[in-house]
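Re: folding output
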Amino acid sequence: MRRRVHFAGALCAGLLWVRADCAAGVVFEITSPYHHIRVVDEGNLRTLSFDGSAETRMSLQNPLQGHFEYTEYFHMPWLWNRQLTNVLMIGLGGASTQRAYRHYYPDVVVETVELDAAVLRVAKEYFGFQESSTQRVQVADGRVFVRRGGGPYGAIIVDAYTKNRYGSFIPYHLATKEFFELTNQRLTTNGVLAYNVIGTFQGWRADILGSVYKTMKEVFPQVYFFPAQETLNVVVVGVKSSEKLSQTALQQRANVLLQSQRIKLPTFRSRLMLLRTDPPLNFQQCHVLTDDYAPVDGLLTRGR
């Protein structure tokens, strides 16, 4: 389960871990039980690829730069929980968000659940990720980990994808009402869920975005959207508070966070300006996803 961006097989018994110096730009290559993984350098940028899809991007000169824009929306939970002390993240990839949290909020404990042990090794060796007292990793399935307990967390960030012949899609068991109920139980009273969806508000993959919204609204009183500009990623934010906040009210909160220097992310204010509070136009026709009915991959063929 991985993070993925989108621009406008059989399991093996063990890991195949080889240098790939023969391929131009490929500096490392691995076949794990879950993906064919490549680390590719092009100029100053290093990209992590799973099965041909770009998962993480990082500047080789400055690891805090070069990342995909949508990961900056994982800082938005501060707007609803200004006393964040711990975060659970499902999906490690190349650790863009983990690196950012380590730099900007060194006192916040980030616990990451990653399904693939090979991804953890790649993140450490090629993307500068370091485990520490505030950066912990558990190799496990995200939903199983959440079900077993832990927390409460000030925020839970979900950035996990798998792939079939139609493209990347959210794993079924991480997109249902039952899963969102589990995350809600593991959040603090002012906790926030931030969830990466590849889709659009109209047309391409609009049914996926509408279904995720409708399902999250079954559990979270208020749901907000932060659509990326560079990619077709939308970070959907669910909050436990029933109060619907306007962009003006959230901008005022952002000003306080920035003035107090609790938030130092340079683009924090500009990212907030892309907030959308209106639901997708098609959500009334979309289904609530449940453990008994979650055709997430089937929705990939709609609106193409």
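--- second protein (sequence, then structure) ---
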Amino acid sequence: MCYRLLQDHLTGSLVATRERVMQKMDVGLASWKWLWEHGESPGNLRTHLDLGSGWHPTIPLLFEGFGVKRQLLCDVAPVMTPASFASALAMLQSVIDQGLRPECQYAKAASDAAAGVDEDVASMMLRHGFTYHAPYSGMGRRYPGEVDFITSTQVLPYIEMTRLVECFKDLIEALRPGGWFLATNHLYDMYADADPSISIYNHLRYSRRFWKCMVNSDMMTFNRLKARDYREALELAGFEIVEFTIDRGGADDLSILRSLNVHPEFSARYSEEELSEKHLFFAARKP
């Protein structure tokens, strides 16, 4: 409840602005293009699982326009509302109608004239072929081998390593043989997005104990994992990694990193190159 109030009244992130919707559309388009380039036709992409849909289901709505008939939307908590769903849909349609994303001209977002003011979000989703699972639990048990592809956009950094492996094992169970798991992840200190006084490597200064007790909370948890940790979790779960693209820091980033007092727990485990990592994209396949 406190987190919802913070987002609603302070950060304003519940509002489906054009910028936010277009950013999500770009991620969805990149994933769709990747699958197309790796031999998947729309006819093979019937069931999609979106891990961490958040307030605005922009990517599932985009995929609906591309012909995906069945989508499983998952969150750690039921944060989506009829208002946030409807606002994302309206903004997506506006972007398409204005030709701001030419690649989407043939993807017509479905209207939702039947939506009622007091309607629950689950009923609204069902009309679009969506099923809402919040809190997330046991998707592999519920949908064994039924999912064609999974996407996750900047969600995995909030999951601790032990739970991440469990999550990946559950996801691979939900995928059909040959099914895909595509994810984008920030590897830098995301608190720096809101606080310009700290660097993107500020999180490397603190021990695990301090971070757990003094920084992480019930409202926000940030795992501080690096790319190799995600690779390890994927491999432990049984995924075949097809692409693993890391955006590492340049000369200016390395200068900032070297000016910090990096905690020994990080400097002993990771190389400087690994510590400089900022973003990760991976595509993994169920054998």
